[in-house]
Specification:
7 helices; about 300 residues; 2 domains; alpha+beta; SH3 type barrels
């Protein structure tokens, strides 16, 4: 099932309307009682207090027994939905590129997409329909009454409780590090220090890192089977946090959005020299990777 829209905002309102429509369809055709949502965590769309506070309404409206939202770690994952959506867009693009079809409207897009792949249900949702649906489910009132969620950027799991509140965790299967959120907002256990707790967890679960690696050193890391250079920003007793560079035409560069994550020792391949600047546009040469990448 793929939703297609001419709404260009693609914000929290759109997300809530899409979730409402998905559940309308699923609960009408099936006896759905448990819903697990997986996504990345952009704050403008998914990981924000407004969407979190809308979840209890979905839970109650569709009489669910379980409603969980699980967020992938930043810059770590694309899910099946990305592949399905990408395939739909590519099919339509190829049809228009070959001049087999002309697409000038939302309805045209859906028609061509369904014609190319009848196994995927493509549903049109216009900007006007999003606005109308948002009014019907009283999103403005829900958003206005929403309460803040402490340390929301660190949260990767949220579940709706039977009492209409939500509970957030940093990891899906870890102990709770936050209390419940409802009309009074989200609260933390007294004296909790999430940054310190996070650092300790990284040290606890990672293998030993060589003492030769220090902060500000440059290293090569392995990520999803490929190698990337980066700079160490923090060293744990058994792991390291690395700010990675990205491949570009002619070499490597720092990405516009910082890509900084924790690596296990087994994924830190080697220590390298400082990348060599090769122009005035922020492009660098990493000689240790020249044999592995073609520039």
């Amino acid at each position: 099932m793929v939703f297609v829209s001419d709404d260009l905002d693609n914000d929290k309102t759109s997300v809530c309307v899409y979730m409402h429509k998905v559940l309308v369809k699923l609960t009408t055709e099936n006896a759905i009682k448990k819903v697990d949502i997986f996504s990345d965590g952009p704050s403008s769309q998914f990981k924000n207090q407004y969407v979190f506070n809308y979840l209890p309404s979905l839970y109650e409206q569709y009489n669910l027994d379980c409603l969980n939202w699980k967020f992938f770690a930043t810059s770590h994952r694309k899910g099946a939905v990305d592949g399905i959506g990408g395939a739909v867009k590519r099919n339509v693009w190829m049809e228009t590129l070959s001049r087999q079809e002309v697409v000038i409207s939302l309805e045209d897009f859906c028609q061509v997409a369904m014609k190319k792949d009848g196994k995927v249900e493509v549903i049109a949702v216009s900007a006007e329909e999003i606005e109308t649906c948002a009014d019907e489910i009283a999103l403005d009132d829900i958003f206005a009454a929403s309460t803040s969620v402490d340390s929301i950027k660190k949260m990767h799991y949220v579940t709706v409780l039977a009492n209409g509140k939500i509970k957030c965790k940093e990891f899906t299967n870890k102990v709770d590090i936050q209390g419940e959120a409802g009309a009074s907002g989200m609260t933390e256990p007294d004296g909790s220090d999430l940054d310190e707790w996070y650092d300790k967890e990284c040290e606890k679960h990672a293998p030993q890192v060589s003492n030769e690696i220090n902060e500000e050193d440059f290293v090569i890391c392995r990520y999803e089977g490929e190698l990337f250079p980066g700079q160490v920003t923090k060293v744990y007793s058994m792991g390291a946090r690395v700010k990675a560079m990205e491949k570009c035409a002619g070499g490597w560069r720092w990405p516009k959005q910082v890509d900084e994550i924790d690596y296990l020792a087994q994924d830190i391949v080697q220590k390298i020299e400082f990348p060599e600047p090769i122009n005035n546009w922020g492009t660098f040469k990493v000689k240790e990777l020249e044999s592995r990448w073609e520039y």
